[in-house]
Structure formats: structure tokens, C-alpha cells
């Protein structure tokens, strides 16, 4: 996680509207945020920074918004997507996916209305919505093979 | 008028094929009858394993007597003697051609006037006849295998 | 995206079985309570391509330790496994699901509900509290605890179990524990109590019963019955399994008139030996005591019977056998055997035998004794006390010669000793016989020739000779020369486009044996031969060695066969043969020496034929014609036809007639019918529940019914009632007897209908194939 802290954050989009006083900048049109192995994309991104200018949290809307990361202690990258996602760098580092959320790693996947991932503790919470339960599909023996 | 000596083409014959007989039944009379049966059917009898076209295994043999009919005086009138051969047939390559099965020949005979004393010799004689019948049926099965 | 496959007991319509038994089970019991265990290949559960699907309103996952907590309408699905509960936890690495609350679980072969459960998905094991289960095809019940201790073993504790349709249970089995071994198809219950219609019925500490349709004993049949002489009777068997290879069945039968008869059957199976001992004992038979008083005999009304058979192996390849069959009195079988066949034995054999074969040598030692059940009209059979037989059969010798030696030493003894046989002075003593044979068989496809030499040497060493002036030391040697030859002709022909083959096999047999005086030799076990063509080719005119016939004769015979080459079966065989004598015969067997038959130049003409048609029809006929008197000397015909009109239905028809020549009052030889028997039996399924069974044996000679049987079976899903009425004569002296037997079967706890079903198998051959 430490390397993550000091990895540079790169942002790009078709247009950006910076509000330095409120510490918010809004990126619109193919917005992409990368930070080391992590990569977030979306149509509209609200990026919030803390007092000393470091990334605090990001709100992303997309069709869908996507998230990708490759935690060092795991053999395969994690992917996720949802209509709307939130990413918080601290307290703990976590991500929140909302609306047709889907998260997958290798062949295992989770689909739900909302998915909350505590990236530090590797804890995931998936919640269904009215009449639509959350679902996890696993392939245990495949994972043992690789 | 169509009669020909057995072994001429068109009939059924083992055409000189070598038949190895594995005797697990332990009856010398049965072995002798099978040997004559094979020779009579145009095959070659052998007990060795060398390049046999067929392997006939005699798993067992047995004869059993049960009551066939009871007279008006309530005593047994007819007995039925059944001689059974338990066999299987495999090709030279060991591949099973006839699953282990059994074949029996039956004869009903009147209870001799002398009762048990005379029945023993009568049964021994009948068993010889039934053994010949059973072996002839066995040869027919082999010949039908081609 | 979660799909729901409806409630647990959904019918798998694509599992409708073809074989009639399973079809009938569905008609009676409804669809199976669970899909068949083999509906899915269980090994695919761990296959890489098989997903493990989890659904719930809330799923929390701990990625590091692969722990999942599912809350709210939680569901797990893996191939055929399907778990539904309010909530459960899954340790996916260890493959363990822990269900704290109520759940429903199903897999191929099983539906299960419980109040809590632990599932080990990898090892296919589970532990369930407060379980309710339904097992394929119709087993269901409830248990305080259910543990599956492996893919094929399940153990239930404090349970109740039934195979009746859920909600309509006529009987429940309550037990402290029940082990179901699906592989062996066996259920073993301990502290078992069977409850019938809510009423406790019987308790047994241990109970074993089949849980599939493999035939095996379980709870044995209580049966009720009534017969003219026995009065009412009731049998309640108790089946006790002592150890995997010992089981004991106690079968007390209460007879209203006779008293209590205790039957027992003990079976044992050990590596070196196995056997079955059944014994029956009735201390005081009132009906029999009355009969004895009428006949003026002193009253000992104890009745018993023993039937013990034991087989074993000893070192050096010696096999031994022990068969003891004895009854306390000659009327026992007639009074207590349940069917005509059982009550018809006139002699009971008891035998001890040891045999060993070493290469081409074979010997056998034997003690044999017969218990004569008809002392008033049959002589006691001789005891062979002991008898040793030896056989040396090296088979083919160099040069194509064939040699064999048979030897026998027998001590013939009378059961009650020489004095007691009411001065018939029957011979008693030892007989030694040795018979080396040498032949040179030339066997080819088209023909065979076999010249042979045989020597019969017999010596008697009698303790009591034949007749007052008889010698006690007798000996004779008879050399026999024979030449057997035959050719094989065949003619292929077609019926439709199916190839057949007809054979024609003429055969000649020359036999020479010098005359040796044997007129006053004893006759222990020798008799005339049967009326078949084949016996014309034996080297001795008599069956047995007490008489070795003189012979200078040629036998000629021809046999034809019709063979189905495709099936490899013989449809018809017919033979005819006759013996041409070159000299008179002088050796006889207790017929007067100047019997004209001995001087005739040719024998009767013998013919016999056998027909076996695929439709289940088989006919066998034997015909003996006397050219001198120009009429038949003996005939016999036996025809059997078995027909299966529909699944579960069976018809057997049989006809048996025999004529023999006998001397009438003024010694004229006349052909008389000695047997003229019609047999018919049938199993008729009336509908899925009712089934009729009938058997009928009628003797046209005495114009009387030998046995008439009528039976009906009413079958429900898990129980059946069978009633059988029978009318038969227990021996000529007594008039016909009516018996009725009622039997009750709890299907699924073992074929309770053992007795009636086994009895019906005697009446309707192949009955058991049509039973549910």
C-alpha cells in the first residue's frame, strides 16, 4: 500500500473544470484516473483533494464507470464496473460501486445493486436491491490450479 | 440333394481355429467332452496359451435334481436332472466375446422302482447324456460367434 | 438473475422408467420423492468448469480467507447440490458450509430439510439437526440428527422411517439409529420398533433390510393361515443378524390344534467353510398324539426336523461337504411342508463327503444314509457306509490313445442292521469294482471312429449272501471290446432369409462282452436302462455294476438336428435306433432266465425327439416300439409352454403323459398309461394394485385334481397383502386338504412375503420375475 501512497496520480479527460477553493475538479468526457496499478475510468469524475493537495476521494459516473487494480499479494488483477462509483484513498482505502455493480477477479465474479470493497482489509460487501439478490459465482478448483 | 459332409463350405465350422480351453471346473469328463466337441466342430483343442484364436473358460459345472411332478399318491413321480456349464469366451486378444453365462441341458426321468438305490446309477447315466447335449450347444454358440 | 426450480419434490418427467417393475412402483407410489442418485455424475461436482453459485440479499466476503457470509434468502448451488436457507456461512477454501438456522437442501437422490446443518462440500459429508429427509425412490422420514459419513453412507439417529407416500404412512419404523449404505443397498437399524397404523407392533434390537430392490432378506413374514388338520396358525419370524456373516432367523409358529412349533435357521459364512442349519421342534403335537392313539401306538408326540448343509475346504485341496436331512417321524414332511413338492419326498438323504483332485487323479470318500419315509411300501435304501471312489483320467496319451480308470469300493449296509429287515434276507457286504478303459478315438469333423477296450473286475465280500445258499465271496472279470463309428452330414437351407442347417448323423456301435455267470450275484444298485436312443450306446445293458451284460451286438442309429446358425441354438433333434443281436443274452436282472426277449435277434426300436421353439414351447417325446408284438412298448411325452402376454403377466402350461408295458392278471403284456398330467399356472395383473395367481395340477389318469391354488395380491405403495388358498392331497390315503394362507408385507422393510412368494414360485415357475 505504501508504494500506492506516493505513486503519482494522473488524470485526463476531454475537459476539466477546476475549483481550487473547494478543492474539487470535475473531469468530463472519457475521464481516466491512474495511480500505480489502479485505473478508474468514467464519463464524469469529481476529484476531491485534501488541504495539502493530495487525492482524497473521487466520485465517478459512467456508462459504466470502471475500476481496475492489481494488489501485490494476489496473482490476478481485480476489475469492477457500475453506473456510479466512489473511491476513497484513506480511512481506509476503499471503493463503493452503485447500480448494476459487477466485480470480478479471474473467473470469480460478484454481481449486485451495490458493492463496497475495503481495499486494505480485502473485505467485500455486496447488497441486492428490491427483488434482485446479490450473486457470487466461484470456480474453486480453477483457482487451485494456477 | 444338398447333403454334404460336415466341414464342407456353407456349413458352420470352426475352420481350424485354435481354441484354448481353460478348465476351472475341474471335471475331466467335461474336458474330454469339450475336446471331442471342438475337434468335431472343426476346431483345434489346446490347453496352452500359445496364439489361440478363442479362449473358452469353463468356470464351473454342476448337476442338480429337483422334483418335476408329484403323483396322485403324493409321492414324487418324476425328477428333473439339470446339468449346467458356467463358461465365458474371449477372443485371442483377451477381449470378452461372451460374458460369463451358463448353459444347461435338462432331462426328466421317472423315479426308478428301486428308489434311491437305483436312482444313483440312472442319474450318472443321464448326466453323461446331458453333458454331451450341453457341450454340443456350447459348440453351436462358439460356431455362431464368427 | 436467480432462477428458482420450484419446490423440492418436483417430478423429473424425463425419468419415466421403462422396466415394468419401476413403472408399477410409480403407479402405486407416485413419482419418486427425489431424483435418482445417478441422475448426475457426482464426480463433476469438483470439475474446474463447475461453478459454485451463491445468491443472497447480502453477501460479505473476506477475500484473504475466502470466507463468505450470506444473509437473506441465501442460496448455494453446485451442479446437483442446492442449499436454501435464511442465512449461512461458507468457508470456500475448506468447502464447508455452516447453516445456523432452518434450511432446505437437495442433491441427486436426496431432499433434506433441517433446523441446522454443517455441509462438507469437498468430502460429500453433512451433519444435520432436526432432519426431515426424502430419499429416492420412496424413502422418507425424520431424524434428530443425520450424518452422511461418505458419499454412499448415511447415519441417522432417533429417527422414524417409512416407504409409504408422505402423509399416508401405514407403517413407521422408529429406531435409535439407522445406517443406510446405498452402495450395498442395506439399512441397519438398532433398537428398532415397527409401528403399524399407529399401534406398536414389534421390537427388535437389530434389524437389517434392503433399501433397493436387490433380493435380500429383511424383516421376515408374519403369516396367518388355516388348514383342515392344522387348524388356524400364526407365524411371527424374528430375524437377528449376529454379525456380518452370521444370521439367525427364529420362526415360532402357533398352531391352534397342534401347539407351538419353533423353527430356526442359522446361516454362517467363514473363509474356510459356510453352511446353513435349519431345525424345527414341536414338543407335543396334539393332532399327532391323537393319530397315534388311534393306531394303538404309544404316545410320543414330539415332532422335529433337521436340515443342515455345510461345505468347506481343507488343506491340500481337499473339499468336504456335510448334508444332514432327518425328520423325527415319517409323517413330518406331509404335516408341515407348505407345498406339494416338499411333502412328496419318499427318502431323505444324509451324506458326508470328502474329495480331492490332484492332476489327473481324483478320489472321493463318502458316507451316505437314507431315511425311508415310506417304510410300508418301500424297502429301506442301502447305506453306503463308507464308499470310496477313485478316478484316474490322464486324457490323451501319446499316439492319440485315451485311457481312464474308475475304481470303487463300497460297503452296503442296511440302516436298521441285517436282522431287522423282516427276513427278506437282503444281501449286505462290500463290493470292489475296478474298470480300466483304453480307446483310440479318431475325431474329425466329417466322421469319428473309436475302437475301445474295457475291463470290468468286480469282487464281492459279503457279510450276508444273496439267498440262503449264496456264496459270500464272489468275483468276476468281464473284458469288453467295442467299436463306435459315425459320420456327420449337413444340409444348409433357408427359412425366409434366415439360414438354418439340418444335420444327419448315422452311427454304428459294435459291442462284444463274454458271458459271466452272475445269476446269484447281489443287486445293490443296478437297474434296467431308460428308454432313450443314447443309452443303446452304453457298453453295459444295465445301469450299475452288479450286472455286466454279455453282448455280441451291433447298434445302429441315426440322428437329425435342425440348427439355427445365427442364434447358435438347436431347434429340433430326433433320433431312432435299434440293436441287432448276434447271439442270445444270458445275463439278466431278477427276470426269469428264459424270458423270450433274451433270444430275439433284434431289440425294440427306440426313438426320441426334442423340440425347443423360441416362443417358449418345448416338447420332448420318447417312443419304444416292439416289432415282435407290433405295438408300442413304452411312450412318454412332455410338453411345456411359457408365454408372457404382457409385462407382469405369465402363463405356464404343461402336459406330461407316459405309457409303460406291464403284465396284467394273466401275464399278458399290455401297454398301460402310468402318468397323464396337466399343469397350468398363471400370474394375471388385474390392475396396478390387484394381481391374481393361479395354479392347477390335474391327473387325467386318476381323474382327480392333485393341487388347485388360487391367490390374490393387493399391493399398495408400501404394503401388500397376499391371500392364497390351496387344495391338495397329503398322500393317497388321506382325502384332499384345504389350506388358506394370508400374508402381510411391509414393502421396503424387506420382502415380508417370503413364504408365500417362495411357495408361489413352486406353483408358478419364474413367478419372482413378475413380482413388483
For this entry, give a set of tags.
heterotrimer, A: 146 residues, mainly beta, 2 helices, B: 146 residues, alpha/beta, five-stranded mixed beta sheet, 29% helix
Distance between the termini of chain C: 45 Å
Major beta-sheet overview of chain A: 10 strands, antiparallel
Structural class of chain C: mainly beta
Mean pLDDT across the residues of chain A is 87
Topology, number of strands of chain A: 10
Mean pLDDT of chain C: 85
Question: N-to-C terminal Cα separation of chain A, in Å?
Answer: 25 Å
Rg of chain A from C-alpha positions? 16 Å
Strand proportion of chain C, as a percent range, falls in over 45%
How would you describe what is shown here?
The complex is a heterotrimer of chains A (146), B (146) and C (772). Chain A is mainly beta and 146 residues long. Helices cover 8% and strands 63% of the residues of chain A. Chain A is built from two helices and ten strands. In chain A, β2 and β3 form a beta hairpin. The longest helix of chain A is centred in the last third of the chain and has 6 residues. The model of chain A has no long low-confidence stretch (mean pLDDT 87). Chain B has two helices and six strands. A five-stranded mixed β-sheet of chain B has the order 3-2-4-5-6, with helices on one face. In chain B, a hairpin with a 5-residue loop joins β4 and β5. In chain B, 40% of the residues are buried. The mean pLDDT of chain B is 86. Chain C is mainly beta and 772 residues long. Chain C has a 26-stranded antiparallel beta barrel. A six-stranded antiparallel β-barrel of chain C has the order 4-5-8-9-7-6. Classes of the chains: A mainly beta (146), B alpha/beta (146), C mainly beta (772). Chains in contact: A-C, B-C. The interface between A and C is medium-sized, with 23 and 27 residues. β10 of chain A pairs antiparallel with β1 of chain C.
Amino acid at each position: 500500500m505504501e508504494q500506492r501512497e506516493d505513486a503519482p496520480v494522473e488524470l485526463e479527460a476531454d475537459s476539466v473544470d477546476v475549483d481550487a477553493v473547494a478543492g474539487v475538479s470535475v473531469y468530463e468526457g472519457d475521464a481516466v484516473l491512474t495511480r500505480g496499478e489502479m485505473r478508474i475510468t468514467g464519463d464524469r469524475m469529481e476529484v476531491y483533494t485534501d488541504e495539502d493537495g493530495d487525492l482524497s476521494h473521487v466520485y465517478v459516473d459512467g456508462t459504466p464507470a470502471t475500476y481496475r487494480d492489481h494488489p501485490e499479494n494476489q496473482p490476478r488483477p481485480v476489475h469492477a464496473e457500475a453506473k456510479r462509483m466512489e473511491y476513497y484513498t484513506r480511512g481506509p482505502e476503499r471503493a463503493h460501486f452503485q447500480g448494476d455493480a459487477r466485480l470480478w477477479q479471474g473467473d470469480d465474479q460478484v454481481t449486485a445493486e451495490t458493492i463496497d470493497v475495503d481495499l486494505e482489509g480485502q473485505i467485500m460487501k455486496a447488497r441486492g436491491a428490491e427483488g434482485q439478490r446479490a450473486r457470487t459465482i466461484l470456480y474453486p478448483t480453477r483457482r487451485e490450479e494456477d | 440333394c444338398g447333403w454334404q459332409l460336415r466341414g464342407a463350405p456353407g456349413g458352420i465350422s470352426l475352420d481350424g481355429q485354435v481354441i484354448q480351453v481353460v478348465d476351472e471346473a475341474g471335471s475331466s469328463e467335461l474336458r474330454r467332452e469339450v475336446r471331442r466337441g471342438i475337434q468335431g466342430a472343426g476346431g483345434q483343442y489346446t490347453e496352452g496359451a500359445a496364439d489361440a484364436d478363442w479362449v473358452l473358460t469353463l468356470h464351473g459345472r454342476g448337476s442338480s435334481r429337483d422334483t418335476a411332478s408329484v403323483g396322485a399318491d403324493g409321492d414324487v413321480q418324476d425328477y428333473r436332472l439339470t446339468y449346467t456349464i458356467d463358461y465365458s469366451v474371449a477372443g485371442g486378444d483377451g477381449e470378452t466375446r461372451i460374458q460369463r453365462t451358463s448353459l444347461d441341458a435338462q432331462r426328466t426321468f421317472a423315479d426308478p422302482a428301486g428308489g434311491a438305490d437305483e436312482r444313483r446309477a440312472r442319474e450318472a447315466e443321464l448326466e453323461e447324456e446331458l453333458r454331451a447335449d450341453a457341450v454340443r450347444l456350447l459348440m453351436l454358440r462358439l460356431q455362431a460367434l464368427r | 438473475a436467480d432462477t428458482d426450480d420450484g419446490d423440492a419434490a418436483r417430478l423429473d418427467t424425463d425419468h419415466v422408467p421403462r422396466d415394468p417393475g419401476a413403472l408399477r412402483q410409480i403407479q402405486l407410489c407416485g413419482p419418486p420423492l427425489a431424483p435418482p442418485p445417478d441422475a448426475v455424475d457426482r464426480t463433476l461436482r469438483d470439475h474446474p468448469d463447475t461453478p459454485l453459485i451463491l445468491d443472497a440479499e447480502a453477501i460479505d466476503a473476506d477475500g484473504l480467507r475466502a470466507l463468505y457470509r450470506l444473509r437473506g434468502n441465501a442460496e448455494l448451488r453446485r451442479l446437483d447440490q442446492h442449499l436454501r436457507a435464511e442465512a449461512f456461512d461458507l468457508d470456500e477454501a475448506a468447502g464447508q458450509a455452516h447453516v445456523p438456522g432452518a434450511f432446505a437442501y437437495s442433491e441427486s437422490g436426496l431432499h433434506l430439510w433441517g433446523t441446522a446443518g454443517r455441509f462438507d462440500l469437498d468430502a460429500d459429508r453433512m451433519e444435520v439437526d432436526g432432519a426431515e429427509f426424502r430419499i429416492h425412490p420412496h424413502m422418507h422420514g425424520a431424524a434428530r440428527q443425520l450424518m452422511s459419513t461418505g458419499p454412499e453412507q448415511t447415519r441417522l439417529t432417533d429417527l422414524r422411517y417409512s416407504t409409504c407416500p408422505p402423509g399416508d404412512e401405514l407403517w413407521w419404523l422408529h429406531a435409535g439409529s439407522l445406517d443406510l449404505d446405498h452402495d450395498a443397498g442395506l439399512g441397519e437399524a438398532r433398537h428398532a420398533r415397527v409401528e403399524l397404523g399407529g399401534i406398536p407392533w414389534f421390537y427388535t434390537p437389530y434389524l437389517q433390510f434392503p433399501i433397493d430392490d436387490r433380493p435380500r432378506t429383511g424383516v421376515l413374514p408374519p403369516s396367518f393361515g388355516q388348514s383342515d388338520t392344522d387348524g388356524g396358525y400364526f407365524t411371527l419370524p424374528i430375524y437377528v443378524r449376529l454379525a456380518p456373516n452370521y444370521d439367525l432367523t427364529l420362526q415360532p409358529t402357533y398352531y391352534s390344534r397342534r401347539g407351538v412349533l419353533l423353527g430356526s435357521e442359522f446361516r454362517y459364512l467363514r473363509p474356510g467353510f459356510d453352511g446353513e442349519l435349519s431345525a424345527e421342534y414341536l414338543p407335543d403335537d396334539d393332532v399327532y398324539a391323537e393319530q397315534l392313539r388311534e393306531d394303538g401306538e404309544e404316545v410320543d408326540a414330539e415332532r422335529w426336523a433337521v436340515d443342515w448343509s455345510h461345505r468347506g475346504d481343507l488343506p491340500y485341496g481337499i473339499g468336504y461337504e456335510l448334508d444332514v436331512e432327518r425328520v423325527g417321524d415319517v409323517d413330518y414332511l406331509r404335516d408341515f411342508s407348505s407345498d406339494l413338492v416338499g411333502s412328496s419326498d419318499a427318502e431323505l438323504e444324509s451324506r458326508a463327503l470328502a474329495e480331492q483332485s490332484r492332476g489327473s487323479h481324483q478320489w472321493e470318500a463318502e458316507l451316505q444314509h437314507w431315511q425311508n419315509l415310506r417304510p410300508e411300501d418301500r424297502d429301506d435304501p442301502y447305506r453306503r457306509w463308507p464308499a470310496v471312489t477313485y478316478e484316474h483320467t490322464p486324457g490323451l496319451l501319446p499316439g492319440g490313445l485315451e485311457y481312464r480308470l474308475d475304481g470303487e469300493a463300497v460297503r452296503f449296509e442296511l440302516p436298521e442292521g441285517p436282522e431287522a429287515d423282516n427276513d427278506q434276507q437282503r444281501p449286505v457286504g462290500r463290493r470292489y469294482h475296478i474298470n480300466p478303459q483304453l480307446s483310440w478315438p479318431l475325431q474329425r469333423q466329417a466322421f469319428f471312429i473309436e475302437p475301445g477296450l474295457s475291463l470290468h473286475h468286480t469282487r464281492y465280500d459279503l457279510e450276508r449272501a444273496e439267498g440262503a445258499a449264496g456264496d459270500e465271496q464272489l468275483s468276476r472279470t468281464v473284458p469288453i471290446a467295442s467299436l463306435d463309428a459315425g459320420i456327420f452330414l449337413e444340409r444348409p437351407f433357408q427359412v425366409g432369409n434366415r439360414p438354418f442347417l439340418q444335420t444327419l448323423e448315422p452311427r454304428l456301435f459294435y459291442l462284444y462282452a463274454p458271458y459271466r455267470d452272475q445269476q446269484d450275484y447281489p443287486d445293490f444298485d443296478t437297474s434296467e436302462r431308460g428308454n432313450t436312443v443314447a443309452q443303446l450306446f452304453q457298453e453295459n445293458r444295465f445301469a450299475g455294476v452288479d450286472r455286466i451284460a454279455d453282448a455280441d451286438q451291433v447298434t445302429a442309429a441315426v440322428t437329425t438336428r435342425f440348427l439355427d446358425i445365427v442364434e447358435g441354438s438347436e431347434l429340433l433333434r430326433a433320433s431312432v435306433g435299434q440293436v441287432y443281436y448276434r447271439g442270445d443274452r444270458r445275463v439278466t436282472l431278477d427276470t426269469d432266465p428264459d424270458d423270450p426277449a433274451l433270444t430275439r435277434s433284434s431289440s425294440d426300436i427306440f426313438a426320441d425327439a426334442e423340440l425347443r421353439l423360441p416362443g417358449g414351447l418345448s416338447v420332448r417325446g420318447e417312443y419304444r416300439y416292439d416289432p415282435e408284438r407290433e405295438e408300442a412298448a413304452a411312450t412318454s411325452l412332455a410338453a411345456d409352454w411359457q408365454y408372457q402376454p404382457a409385462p407382469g403377466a405369465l402363463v405356464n402350461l404343461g402336459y406330461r403323459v407316459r405309457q409303460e408295458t406291464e403284465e396284467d392278471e394273466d401275464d399278458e403284456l399290455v401297454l398301460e398309461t402310468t402318468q397323464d398330467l396337466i399343469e397350468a399356472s398363471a400370474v394375471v395383473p388385474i390392475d396396478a394394485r390387484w394381481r391374481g395367481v393361479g395354479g392347477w395340477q390335474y391327473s387325467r389318469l386318476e381323474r382327480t385334481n392333485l393341487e388347485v391354488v388360487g391367490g390374490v395380491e393387493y399391493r399398495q405403495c408400501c404394503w401388500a397383502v397376499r391371500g392364497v388358498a390351496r387344495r391338495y392331497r397329503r398322500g393317497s390315503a388321506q382325502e384332499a386338504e384345504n389350506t388358506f394362507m394370508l400374508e402381510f408385507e411391509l414393502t421396503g422393510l424387506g420382502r415380508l412375503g417370503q413364504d408365500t412368494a417362495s411357495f408361489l414360485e413352486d406353483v408358478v415357475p419364474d413367478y419372482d420375475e413378475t413380482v413388483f
